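User: Sequence in, structure out. Go.
Assistant: Echoing your sequence, followed by the structure tokens.
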Amino acid sequence: MEPQEEEKIIEKIASFVVAEGLEAAIIPILEFSRPFGWIGGQLGRFTVGPWLYLFGGSRFIKYFSFLEKKENLDNLVNKIEELSKNQKKEGGKRSRH
């Protein structure tokens, strides 16, 4: 997966999390699951992967690749924290996507 594509995924997920006000719940989950990211990516590929190809959802395979890299989870947590801080500075406005 290209770094630009990883950045797009990070931005998309982080923006959604902050817009919905889920950062307080998601950050601890990401922190806890960080050591298991690779296992989760592999497990997803193994269990869901064949079904995605059969039903035309192969574009979701990139998310399994994303989860397998520990630094992506680190970057996602950092981006969520950054967007959350920026939102608080702007007066707490939540933007819907």
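User: And one key feature?
Assistant: The chain has one domain: 3-86.
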